[in-house]
Amino acid sequence: MEQEYPQSFHVATINDRRGTHIALFHAHYPLIAFVGDHLYVYRTEFLAPPAWATTLGRFGFLVLTATELLSPLEKTDTSALSQAEWRQIRHWKPATLGAALFNSWD
What we know:
By secondary structure, this protein is of the alpha+beta class. The chain has 3 helices and 5 strands, in the order E-E-E-E-E-H-H-H. The chain has one domain (9-101).
């Protein structure tokens, strides 16, 4: 896995019998998202997790669905966010939950 500054996530490429899967592991929270390609910024490129990804829950991870990640940020419970996080959101204006969680903000 690798994390490039200022990305908020690590990237892992996982191969199985059905092909290659690219997983984003949040750098600070046990959250995982799946995408189709290695990109520097993710906004709407989130995919449904493969069926086997549910087993990651046994290790304390929360595997997010594409529906959750693509939900509008304004319809998401953001009450736990700090003032610093809100400043970043106001500056970068992410449209979706996934774009806010898996970002490359400095």
